[in-house]
Amino acid sequence: MSSTAPLVWIGTAAIVAAVLQLRRAWALPRRSAVQNGIGWTLMLAGTALALAGDGAWGVAVASLGGMIVAALLLAHAGWTARPGKGRASARKAHMLPEKGEPRQIGRRLLTFLLSVPLAFAASLLVALGARALAGLAGWNDADGNAMALLLLPLLWGILAFWLLMQTHRRAQWAWLAAPAATGLGLIWIGGAL
Asked: Which range marks the domain in which residue 34 is found?
């Protein structure tokens, strides 16, 4: 056992605690920003500890603990959930318009384009910018590449989720532009441009 292994184990424990805290927070009758914030702070702290302990490998090992606990919680919820009594209307599920309503295909297509390929591109710029900064900081190439590969789907998922939660197009464009500009700036600072 190396001297950095305790940081990975503590990081794993923090990520597991974060998953449990987020599950508890989401089960509350009303949303609580404080309870959600505690969960996400634990997740970030656990990731940082695991990263400090053993680089990208430490983050990968620590995240496995959180994924296992999340899978167990989901399996339990699925197993114990009572079946629904009725079928949700298409309107309620926001999948299809009710009869007589316009389909708004253009609006739906733009939402897809914003939240999938454009969000991917913005997330890729941030991941590449982080990789450039890691190289500038003297990180090993393997750790920098692994960090970028870890960041890309994580940032893409967060950004896509956040874009879909916005109610105005202007806010969606702003949330896309901010990480894209940040990523380009980081790439420029890291000397990759």
From this structure: 1-80
DSSP for 104-160 reads -HHHHHHHHHIIIIIHHHHHHHHHHHHHHHHHHTT--HHHHHHHHHHHHHHHHHHHH
Same domain flag for 7 and 51 = yes
Kindly report each contact of residues 84-88 with a partner whose C-beta sits within 8 Å and lies 24 or more positions away, as own/partner. none
How far, in Å, CA of 52 to CA of 134, rounded? 13
Q: What are 72-128's pLDDT values in tens digits?
A: 999 999 899 888 776 655 445 556 666 777 778 888 899 999 999 999 999 999 999
Residues 119, 112: Cα–Cα separation, whole Å: 10
- 99 falls within a domain: no
Total number of domains constituting the chain: 2
* Residues 154-181: b if buried by 16+ CB within 10 A, e if exposed: ebbeebbebbeebeeeeebeebbeebbe
pLDDT in tens, 2-61: 666 899 999 999 999 999 999 999 999 998 999 999 999 999 999 999 999 999 899 999
Based on the fold, state whether residues 75 and 126 are members of the same structural domain.
no
Give the SS3 label for residue 29.
coil
pTM: 0.55
From the list 112, 143, 129, the residue with the least C-alpha distance to 178 is 129
